[in-house]
Design goal:
The complex is a heterotetramer of chains A (113), B (502), C (122) and D (329). Chain B has 502 residues and is mainly alpha-helical. Chain B is 77% helix and 2% strand. The longest helix of chain C has 32 residues. Chain C has a single domain, classed as Helix Hairpins (Orthogonal Bundle), CATH 1.10.287.3510. In chain C, 69% of the residues lie in helices and 0% in strands. Classes of the chains: A mainly alpha (113), B mainly alpha (502), C mainly alpha (122), D mainly alpha (329).
Chain lengths: 113, 502, 122, 329
């Protein structure tokens, strides 16, 4: 494997790690807002690293351009979607779980996203 | 390239071309009806021309896009296809000619152009199934006709039309998808989609299980579409709540198109190459068809709504057709084909007569129609004569069907006697349910006129309606005497279908 | 390891999805749910066809470079059929949903049992 | 690697299907159905069917989810507890699955080059398309030319659905309140309080339309064609309708014009076929359209694909507008 491929692999592995962290966070976090926070890790670091890795592998081809376009698109839509979910949740009356509410047990039931 | 060469596609093309025009160009009053009728008339004329071709030269083929089959889609108009075309285009024409007053009174003027465009699309879809020789193409055109049918049934005047349509839609889609899956299995094992080519290539297929599954899926799918007992639940209500002209159209032809496809698949493709398929057909279809005959007729006896009664009667009549071809003999096939044609005439006439009553009285409940024979004598007489044909009294088209069916059944020895008993029993039941109507119509007094006889306005229907109704009733007797057309086509087709069987 | 080690797994999944979809169509009383079930059921048929098109060592049936003898391409025919079938599916879904909406307007419910109740009382 | 991916998508497909059927909240069910369709599309891609994947993603995951949502907002959010007994259907379906499972062992395994489907008709398409039609995308060649009649039928199915939805939603005993009251307008006026969403969404719309056009007119060279392009274009309009209110999208794309354009698309397709007949070929035999058969084929394919795209997009827009502009009863 050439150096470029090693670098690409590193990017991909790191990206995978962040996606994994995001997934674990989605499961472990107590309420909707914190879960979204966890998910945003996937959305930003995960996509950024994975796409970069893929672009490095693809090299100077049309595929790279397309990957770059996808990256831009994801970076653009991801935050907007998160915002929409959070805003809608707030309007729908879902309150963030605060520290003084105590631990998760016995807390208000959080609707799944 | 003369026009004659293009006949097979033109039958499909004419309604296909007019339908979008009709939908898109806003038109009022009776204009949409007029356009649809003219188109239907033209299609009927083309179908007659095509039948002439078939009678003269045997199966007519046409290659779409100029691509040779099996690489392109080929049309193949066999004698049976020609007969189906006649039934389809004839049913459409008679229902249209009969129907403008009824349609307007039931669905109003609004959006008639959309409705008649759907009508033409249904016509195009059904004819497309009849002429095509490609298994997947059948699916596509089946969906055209089904979607158009849903649209038309949903336009019925009562709200139950919506629930009936929903049931119809679910059943129809499940049926079509079953068919699609069945074709998928056949394609998986043969690598082709052309019906004739499939039959050839299936000879080399050694593993039977997927083919068996294919036959099962196709059988169930088409039985759902054909409303074969016990998969008939959608039909009576769909006919009951559809606008009457639509019910006439469909009652005369649509379920039979599914049977037509079933006959083609079973006899041309599966029978010769799938061991045990003949036993499966006999073992499965024969009991089902006998049950359909008896159950359909029994329910019809107790049904108090005329349209639903005719719907259940259709369940029984489909039983006759299926019984005839499940005999797996040339005589049986002939009987099935003849009955497909004759039943179109009979049910068309019966539904028309009932529709005429509905137009004038606003109800199809038998209990609301006492003494109708006195207030609407001609219509009621037409109903009775068509009913006589349904029962199978000599000199009528129905008799011809029964005659061939019984002679086909009697080829089968003691089993035949049992079947004969079932047929006779079912015919007796038909006598009962037709008589039930006669009794109410003639032997009960019409209700006392409450203030000048206006709300029900009981008088004979418009002249145009009467003329069409009596022409169709007359056709029932004509084809009871002159059987050359259906019988000629049936005699050409039956050996073709049995040919695959050695 | 190539995709072919999946073997017959595709067919099993197809069968399972088909059964799930049909179950929803047959058993559910809610009309929208039945439409969703119908879509799933149709999806199973799509999977059956597309499963057939795959060929070992082949690529999609698009000639990026002029094809050489010996190049393998997936079978394009099932793809064409399923393109067609997908659009049939959405057409049926749209019509079914439109009818469901009208049913809701007329009956005030889209549950089969409640509709039957309304009809019985009428 | 691809095996793992295949296993994953297939398994997730089943999970999504189960979850769809399971969930009592119908909005959740339709989201699960969206995921189901996406998984299906991914799976199609793995199986080398890029065209189908594109269409499934646009139609299954995009358009039908929007339609389900639109219908749900007009009907009910929750499914009531079912009243039917499910054990008999479950038994029958269990048997069906057992039969299908048993039959799978006699079917050609995935990717078997000796399978009958790879023997007979398919090699003809693959080997003859460069000579007869000369476009790189064989799927488009079959779709529009070899089996163009099927595709024509398909266009008519879509057209029928369009006029069906129009007619079903117009046959109303109580004249439907078409968006007149203020309260109604408030309900359907999109997501106006979400400024960011609207701005961001509107940036995407032109890109989406551009992509649809690329898919439409580049469909002979890369995955795509009329169906997927039409669905994508319709998705762009639906996005506009969701962001700005369906009354606006209906105003931008009036129903009667959509109906006419849909009819025009179908007529274009049929018309090309009829012109072929007049020039002495069979119906849909594009070879006669030009002095060189190959050029005629390419011209014909371009035209009919445009007809497909036109009809599919306008009908889907029409259906969306009809459903989204209906007020709750």
């Amino acid at each position: 494997m050439s150096l470029l491929e090693w670098v690409a692999a590193l990017f991909l592995v790191c990206g995978g790690f962040f996606v994994l962290v995001g997934g674990v966070g989605m499961l472990r976090m107590p309420d909707l807002y914190t879960r979204m926070h966890a998910a945003s890790v996937t959305e930003t670091m995960g996509t950024l690293l994975i796409m970069t890795g893929l672009i490095l592998i693809a090299g100077w081809t049309l595929a790279s351009v397309k990957l770059f376009a996808i990256l831009l698109f994801l970076l653009f839509t991801g935050p907007v979607a998160s915002y929409a979910v959070a805003n809608t949740a707030l309007i729908a009356g879902i309150k963030p779980q605060l520290a003084e509410d105590g631990p998760q047990i016995g807390g208000p039931e959080v609707p799944r996203p | 390239m003369s026009l004659v060469h293009h006949l097979p596609i033109l039958v499909v093309l004419v309604p296909m071309f007019v339908a979008p025009l009709l939908a898109a160009v806003p038109s009022r009053g009776h204009l949409p009806w007029l356009i649809a009728s003219l188109t239907s008339l033209m299609t009927f004329a083309l179908a007659i021309g095509l039948t002439g071709q078939v009678l003269a030269h045997g199966t007519v083929t046409y290659e779409l896009g100029g691509w040779p089959v099996p690489f392109g889609i080929g049309l193949a108009v066999s004698p049976l296809s020609a007969l189906m075309l006649l039934v389809i285009t004839g049913a459409s024409l008679m229902a249209l000619l009969w129907g403008p007053a009824s349609m307007t009174s039931e669905v109003g003027h609004q959006h008639q152009s959309l409705l008649y465009a759907s009508w033409l699309l249904a016509l195009c879809g059904l004819s497309g199934i009849a002429v095509t020789g490609d298994a997947f193409n059948i699916f596509v055109f089946m969906e055209i006709s089904s979607l158009a049918s849903y649209v038309m049934v949903a336009a019925g005047p009562k709200r139950q039309a919506l629930t009936a349509t929903f049931k119809y839609l679910i059943t129809g889609t499940v049926g079509a998808t079953f068919y699609l899956i069945g074709v998928g299995y056949l394609y998986m094992m043969t690598g082709t989609l052309n019906v004739a080519d499939m039959a050839v290539r299936l000879a080399d297929v050694s593993s039977t299980m997927p083919v068996l599954i294919a036959s099962g899926f196709i059988l169930v799918g088409l039985a759902l579409k054909a409303a074969l007992f016990p998969m008939h639940a959608w039909m009576p209500n769909a006919y009951r709540f559809a606008p009457t002209p639509v019910a006439i159209f469909f009652a005369a032809c649509s379920t039979k198109v599914a049977l037509f496809v079933l006959i083609r698949f079973d006899f041309l493709i599966l029978m010769p190459h799938l061991p045990g398929h003949a036993d499966m057909l006999i073992g499965l279809l024969m009991p089902l068809s006998v049950a359909a005959m008896l159950v359909g007729s029994t329910v019809a006896i107790f049904e108090r709504d005329l349209k639903r009664m005719l719907g259940y009667s259709s369940v029984a009549q489909i039983g006759y057709i299926v019984l005839a071809f499940s005999l797996l003999s040339t005589a049986g096939l002939t009987a099935a084909i003849v009955h497909i044609f004759n039943h179109g005439l009979i049910k068309g006439a019966l539904f028309m007569a009932v529709g005429t009553l509905v137009l004038r009285t606003g109800t199809s409940r038998l209990d609301d129609l006492p003494g109708i024979g006195k207030t609407m004598p001609l219509t009621t007489l037409a109903f009775c004569l068509a009913g006589v044909s349904l029962i199978g009294v000599p000199l009528t088209a129905g008799f011809i069907s029964k005659w061939y069916l019984i002679s086909a059944v009697l080829e089968h020895g003691s089993l035949g006697l049992v079947l004969l008993g079932a047929i006779l029993l079912s015919s007796l039941m038909a006598v009962v349910y037709i008589w039930k109507v006669v009794e109410v119509a003639y032997f009960r007094d019409p209700p006392a006129e409450s203030g000048g006889g206006t709300p029900l306005g009981r008088r004979e229907a418009p002249l145009g309606m009467m003329i069409v109704l009596w022409i169709v009733v007359g056709a029932n007797f004509w084809f009871g005497l002159d059987t050359r057309l259906p019988l000629g086509l049936a005699n050409m087709e039956a050996p073709l279908l049995m040919g695959g069987q050695r | 390891m190539s995709i072919n080690s999946l073997g017959l797994y595709n067919y099993w999944i197809y069968g399972f999805v088909l059964v799930i979809g049909l179950y929803a169509v047959l058993v559910k009383g809610n009309y929208v749910k039945r439409m969703i079930g119908l879509s799933i059921f149709q999806g199973a048929a799509f999977l059956l066809y597309i499963t057939m098109d795959k060929i070992e060592g082949g690529t999609g049936p698009i000639f990026v470079t002029p094809p050489q003898p010996g190049d393998l391409f997936a079978n394009p025919l099932p793809q064409v059929l399923i393109l067609t079938a997908i659009v049939v599916g959405i057409a049926v879904t749209a019509l079914g949903l439109a009818i469901t909406i009208r049913i809701k307007e007329e009956y005030g419910t889209i549950e089969e049992s409640e509709i039957r109740e309304v009809d019985r009382q009428a | 690697m691809i095996t793992v991916l295949g296993l994953f998508t297939l398994t997730f497909l089943v999970i999504a299907a189960l979850a769809t059927v399971q969930s009592r909240n119908l909005f959740v069910a339709s989201m699960w159905f969206c995921i189901f369709s996406l998984m299906m599309a991914a799976n199609f891609l793995i199986l080398d069917a890029a065209d189908v994947a594109l269409t499934e993603a646009a139609v299954g995951a995009g358009v039908s989810t929007v339609l389900f949502m639109g219908a749900l907002s007009l009907t009910a959010e929750h499914e009531h507890v079912r009243e039917r007994s499910g054990w008999l259907p479950a038994l029958v379906l269990g048997l069906l699955f057992a039969v299908l499972f048993a039959a799978s062992f006699e079917q050609p395994r995935l990717g078997d080059p000796l399978a009958p489907v790879h023997q007979h008709v398919a090699p003809f398409y693959l080997s003859e398309t460069p000579r007869l039609i000369d476009i790189p995308n064989v799927v488009t060649a079959i779709l529009a030319s070899f089996r163009g009649y099927d595709t024509l039928g398909e266009v008519l199915v879509v057209f029928t659905a369009g006029i069906g939805v129009l007619s079903v939603l117009s046959f109303s005993p109580k004249k439907n309140q078409q968006l007149s009251g203020e309260g109604v307008a408030e309900r359907v006026r999109g997501v106006q309080h979400h400024a960011i969403l609207r701005v961001a969404g509107k940036l995407i719309i032109p890109l989406l339309m551009l992509f649809a056009l690329v898919v439409q007119f580049h469909g002979e060279y890369s995955p795509g064609g009329g169906f997927s392009a039409g669905a994508l274009f319709a998705a762009a309009v639906m996005l506009y309708g969701i962001l700005e209110g369906a009354d606006r999208s209906a105003k931008a794309m009036p129903q009667d014009w959509m109906l006419r354009l849909a009819a025009l698309g179908a007529m274009l397709y049929i018309g090309v076929g009829i012109v072929c007949m007049m020039l002495g070929g069979n119906f849909l035999d594009y070879s006669v359209l030009s002095s060189k058969p190959v050029a005629g084929q390419q011209l014909g394919i371009l035209l009919v694909e445009f007809g497909v795209g036109l009809t599919v997009s306008t009908v889907l827009i029409m259906i969306f507008n009809a459903i989204a502009n209906r007020s709750t009863y």
